[in-house]
Batch of 4 targets.
Target 1
Amino acid sequence: MDISRKKPSYPLTPALRQYLRDYDREAPLPVLYADLLRYTGSFPLRDRAGRDTLWETVFFEPQAMLELSQGLAQVYALLKTGGDLSFTEHLIADRIDYCHFGNSHPFRIRIVNQLNDNYDYFYVKQADASRLYGLELEHLLSPNSMNFLVSGDTLIEEHIAGIPGDDFIRLRLTSATTLPINQVRIAKEFVKFNERCFVRLLGDMRAYNYVIDVTPDFEDEQYRVRAIDFDQQSYDGRRIMYQPRFFADNAVVVDLCARLLNPETVRQYQTEERTLMARRARAERHRLKALLDVMRRHELAPAGKVDQLKAALNRYHHSSAFEKCDSMGDLVRQHLWVTLGAGAKPV
């Protein structure tokens, strides 16, 4: 499947900013995205095997880096400890990476605890309305809590830990390895992930846009597939853009599902995931309604893409339920109702 053009960034509306304030997603920050653009040089960042990661490590003048490090430690405290700065004297930002690839041109910050050399990451990005809606829908409808903050045009995101999907496929599914792997559980989780993306219309889940979270269990391993890129939340007009199984770099996993799961089992896993999503939608119905009310009034794609997706969803569901939808927010709301049932409809 071809994605020929880069998605434009959509600005935040006053209504969206009010929603973010209402649900504690907005905070004043000591360091903004524009501050990190003042780096003086960079060099390519390579992985342990020497391959280009598409990130580059940037550096600053010594005094500027000292001030940035202090400010970024405070940002980390806002994200992790609700603004308790008593821990920041032990924290430093020892590396800042920048990525030209992708819509948000993110900076990745490595924060190190000097008492034990443990480190963590977070991201500083340009705030894009599509991504914010994607993050909130993930938080409300998936099994994953999303931790992020917004200030002006700056978005701060917590790091999502896991093995990048393309690395997992290359190293654990298609190459000789002695590492234990439960292929049936991987197939099951990919079916569920595909279902989550389609129900809430999250697009472009190519293998490098999700990670595999591996958890050791008492007898085996458990897996969860987690999206890490939310820029393509309900933007494209093609239905298959919202179903990861149609992307070529997911073909190995799709073949695994076809080989190990029969149609009845696939339907079971799809139903399980939709049931869980419906329960989450009911539990968060007031917040979900507030989000979708804002989203429905926000232009998040050209009118032609809205009409294209509207027609595609009507054909797929053998329905005319989407005919009156005038925006991508309308389509997301209607699709949640159609796929999850009336019990999950935002009131």
Target 2
Amino acid sequence: MAEAIDNFHWRCRHTWRQSARNTAWCLLGCAIGDFGTIAAFQIWSPETNPMLVMILAIMNGLITSIALETVILSRQMGWLNGLRTAFGMSLVSMISMEIAMNTTDWVLVGSLKLTWWSIIPSLAAGFVTPWPYNYWRLKKFGVACH
């Protein structure tokens, strides 16, 4: 392990590609729960406090990300090990992704609402924010969040 720590660098294309794939899977799971929650409140209860919606969106994003990852991993290692691995994913990565997505949407729209022109920038912010952390974790420790 000391050798891996001593040889850490940011120049490995293979690790950048792998960490990008890992981050994209996380983004898909988080976006389903996050955007689904925001859309539901926007349609059925638009008067709900936006901070409550944001908290629920983050929680649902974490839940759907873990659920999606469990399904994907269960094909490789069985349900129980898939679930354990999914719960062992980096919450730092997922929470930073969620906060970046919701903050970007809030800044662009002025509230927590989905618009056709705020979704892509929110997804981009949600991807770019945890990506270096996922690279670092994968390169330094050999630990992927997915």
Target 3
Amino acid sequence: MTKTDAPILLVEDTPSLQLLYRSALNAVGHQVIVASTAAEALGLLRDVPVQLVLLDLVLPDREGLDLMQELLQLRPDTAVVVMTAHGSINKAVEAMRAGAHDFLVKPFDETRLLAAIANAKTVQPGKHSPRKAASLAATTNAAASGTFIGSSTAMAHIHATINSVARSMATAFITGESGTGKELCAVAVHDNSPRANGPFIALNCGAIPQDLLESEVFGHMKGSFTGAISDKPGAATAADGGTLFLDEICEMAPALQTKLLRFLQTSTVVPVGATRPRKVNVRIVCATNRDPMDAVRRGQFREDLFYRLYVVPIHMPPLRERGDDVIEIAQAALARFAQEEGKEFYGLAADVCTLFRALPWPGNVRQLLNVIRNVVVLNDGGLVTTEMLPASLQLPHPEVLLPTPAASAPVESMALDALLGRPLAEVERLLIEATLARHNGSVPKAARVLDLSPSTLYRKIEAWTKQ
């Protein structure tokens, strides 16, 4: 029996789900053998060659994660797709880091099941086995070293998460400030996935007028509205077989959010003006520079859509929190821009490196690249010194220097006088509200400044709204 002719092993202890999954797989020609316990699954694996294992992580006699590790030792060339309930996504991500190919969050539909199986069957034998995890990570880091640069602890975590999520069909939800590299992260997810040879289609939901966004996402038929002079496939159709990246997803209008939710549930596209849906096979990656949970609380983003998309979160840290990454990025950009401009630069002076580490970089990587481009264009070459930098970045820099005690004392005294005599709870609320206002209502940013966990801040805000 060849690998492609071998059956799929379904490990699921609920009889009704056994019947449901087995029927869906049999209907498209897959042979399926079923195990209800870990012990039964191991027995079948020893006796029968299988092409793939569909594994529930909650079994009556053993943890599914432990079973997966043993079966990968027994059959390292076998792809594993794990199944888990919504509340156990962390366990599923842990399973992927241990060698699983993909995961399904219950309840899932037949389309999602078959897509995961088809995707897993494209994996080369042993490609994602634990033994090859180190080489896979090295490959990803090498790919990242061109434009997706950084060896800090924060970026090491990002690379590890990309390694885990890239090979699945799970939706990645990327957050982070503007300019932190969210699209580069999405590209890295695509390039390290089995869909790397398929299209990567990026759509900025905040840059397209809302009345045109539906047509851009789902396409339109000729004559469906004024100006529709021909049929046009949308981004979802263009991304068939690849990845659709929806940037600034929180800017999407509520009506279109409803249609996107239906698209995610059915994997079908209905262009504007069309009556017949079309099936597509698309992996979704989305991003926002806003706090998505805050958008849900404000009623600006559908909660059911949020939970459908927020499967594997990836937070891109701001440049100011990435340590020496700023130097790595600057040096790589200097070499690239110098080559493009036909000039010869030797690197960054020590005081430039010190300044770059200290700056807050509100525009993040995008701002840094603009600075380096400015230096290369306006100077002939050599070692980059502070005199070559744009005037706004040269030392002394007002955002780098701390205020002197003499300058800050009167301000602190006035602020303290305004708070004296007030209850402590009121003072706390005033401080929190002022911090939120300074950070445009961002709870995560305010929580970092106040040295609190975001969940604590959310509970306090919720308590105030009920008063």
Target 4
Amino acid sequence: MAAADTLESVLARRTCEGVLYEKLADRKVRCVSCGHRCIISPGRPGICKVRFNREGVLYVPTGYVGALQCDPIEKKPFFHAFPGEDALSFGMLGCDLHCAYCQNWFTSQALRDPASMAPPEDVTPEGLVDLAVARHAPVVASTYNEPLITSEWAVAVLRAARARGLRGAYISNGNGTPEVLDYLRPWVDLYKVDLKGFDDQNYRRLGGVLANVLETIRGLVARGFWVEIVTLVIPGFNDSPAELTRIAEFLVSVSPDLPWHVTAFHPDYKMTERDHTPVETLLAAAEAGERAGLRYVYAGNLPGQVGRWEDTRCPACRTPVVRRRGYRILANTLRRDGTCPTCSSRVAGFWWGEGGDRPAAPAGNPTRRPEPLPVPPPPRA
């Protein structure tokens, strides 16, 4: 990046016309990539600062990454898809929220915070997929920034991944729209949502609206994505037993098969005054999820300190079918079709599978076996 260049000007050269928008009168546009549904005047960006109106046309990011690495899929975290495998993880820059505790602020807040420096690196979809294949990663994941606001680029990458037999994943704040979920559905198999609490005032402090996220979770499950939910439990912010119970009860109302990861907070970015999450608080949150009726509850970010809450257990006989410590798989006895080796009950998830018919899907979050799929037709240009 030349000294005279601003990050805005560098990113503006790495854009193309978007798909997720509609044209309005007076050369304004309405973006539908996230729940803000920004109405953007000519010469202006949306709230995310990376989607902007140039003479009545919405331009969106393309052709670069701001972060790239191969991660254990458990780090995303997905505990019910390809245990022990890797996910080729890529991200761009920008976000539609501004969480003070963001752990990926160097990419997500790059357009808001001068201290954040994550210069873009030019790549092609095929180049990213080649890297995933070389690393034997069965999943390609859009992450690190908010993928909803860069969905056109993510779809370009995930289309190329699907053509090579790989699966697509989103690691997202869940501030979606029906339009973006329909756009993603042919290409995204796994979707992780950060449900940051159950208090709308707190959500608005982060730049979001709780109702949008709840509706996105419902919409994801209804459309057949494999969905896992994460709540970072922050002392004094969202850690009251009542709020955690409300989250669990909402998730059960969508599907008791939604895995819920309650994870420990550590001070980061602009939220350094709060304490680390005590293990007792995390265990209480996990127990609240189990009492509410969730079949799969996990406690994360405190490996080795939370006992059974790191393991996947059969919902029928409670046999531990995948045992973990942090992101490391200690033992995996789950059959490849997602059934328990002890009682043959199905464990909900997106499993490898081998032979036979597709496993029966429970109500809500559906068990889906990732057999080879035909490549869908390209999205609207």
